[in-house]
Amino acid sequence: MIDTQLSPLPRRIRVAVIGGGQNSEHEVSLASAASVRAALDPAVFEVQSLTVDRDGYWLRADGQPLAATRARSFAAAVGLIADCDVAFPAVHGPRGEDGSLAALFELAGVPYVGAGVRGGALAMDKWATKLVAAELGIRTAAGRLVDAGTAAGLRPDRFPVVVKPVAAGSSHGVGLVHRIEELDGALADALAHDHRVLVEEFVTGREVDLAVLERADGSLLVGPALEIVVAGAAERTALFDTAQKYDGSAVFRIPAPLADAEEKALREAALALFTALGCRSVARFDFFLTPEGPVLNEVNTMPGMTAQSQVPKMFEQAGLPYPALLDQLLRSALSDRTQDHR
Asked: Which family does the UniProt entry place this protein in (predicted)?
């Protein structure tokens, strides 16, 4: 079990909790931010609530814009963030966990939860992540990178294939294609979310996720593995798609039933990726577990952060309750060790 007895902070800490964002994960990010705010102990943390709406305006806690124009609302938000001790950007997807907000905090000189600029940008880019994984000897699905021009006339050697945007989250724009007749529509859906798209072979295997937490002393903690069970996945007929991620139909098994060798391989891969990608704070690594070993699917540097999300559930199973996990993340951000401006 994890020791959750931490020394008292020297004073009440002012935290900017940011939700929303200008992407398809806006609503999920709002839920994460609301959950974080509600779980922070008001005796320890003073919360400054900020939201980025779909049009890019920065909003106050009451939902009203900080200023009449988008540019002025951003300037006002920077001022509020700069007055905080630490920022907790619970913003998923592009213009959030891709390094965009990390760059803002770096320029403002404010410590923050989550990956730095480099780590966020690399991990959000699924193609770049595949290249890093290959250098580490970690398998990924065979596939190719296309754009609107090169996608025309694409004919995969075999089906099914998975079509997905290079930089998007919550499976938005992701499609499983069984026949050539379905390919153009899937490509169009993916290209609506990103100008670059991956077309990958469908991997048959158990879906197993691991989370890595960086603590204030710099040590890395790997939470218990989580297995996602989705109807039809084993028969190559289904994906863990956007609907199943939020409709409650998927079953999470924590800890995942794994052989010792399987668990060791997954843990080693997750730790190697965390370091090589330049991750920080916390990250979730999604794998397919095949008879030949792990196959990396993707990396999330700001995974869902409600109390019912996968990462909090993993660490809760290990003896780190949700409020304590948030406390660990904020302490890690505040520590001198993590402020290396990556």
From this structure: Belongs to the D-alanine--D-alanine ligase family.
Token pair, residue 61, equals 């806690």
pLDDT of residue 336: 57
Q: 310-317 and 322-334 are packed helices; what angle lies between their axes, rounded to 10 degrees?
A: 100
In whole angstroms, give the CA distance from residue 330 to residue 342: 17
Tell me: pLDDT of 294 over 90. Answer: yes
**What is the dihedral sign for C-alpha 64, 70, 71, 74?**
positive
Per residue in 6-24, is it b (16+ CB within 10 Å) or e — as a string? eeeeeeebebbbbbbbbbb
Of 313, 320, 149, nearest to 228 by C-alpha is 313
Q: How distant, in Å, are the alpha carbons of 84, 145, 202 from that of 150?
A: 46, 9, 21
Give me the residues paired with residue 288 across strands: 207, 295
Over the stretch 214-271, which tens digit does the pLDDT of each residue have?
998 899 999 999 999 986 555 445 555 545 554 556 899 999 999 999 999 999 999 9
pLDDT for the residue numbered 166:
95
Can the peptide bond before residue 111 be classed as cis, meaning omega within 30 degrees of 0? Answer: no
- Whether residue 1 is contained in a domain is answered as no
Contact 168, 26 (CB under 8 A): no
Give the angle subtended at the CA of 99 by the CAs of 287 and 207, to the nearest 5°: 10
**Cross-strand partners of 175:** 163
Interior CA angle at 280 toward 278 and 281, to 5°? 170
Closest CA to 13 of 50, 44, 48: 44
**Which pLDDT score, from 0 to 100, does residue 337 have?**
42
The total number of residues shown for the chain amounts to 342
Report the pLDDT value the prediction gives residue 9, as an integer from 0 to 100.
80
Q: DSSP readout, 215-239?
A: -TTS-EEEPPPEEEE-TTTTTT---
* 238 and 125 both lie in a single domain: yes
Instruction: Examine the domain organization and report whether 39 and 128 are in the same domain.
Output: no
Its domain, for residue 103, covers 13-113
In the structure, what pLDDT confidence band is assigned to residue 3 with cuts at 50, 70 and 90?
low
- Please indicate, yes or no, whether residues 194 and 208 belong to a single structural domain of this protein: no
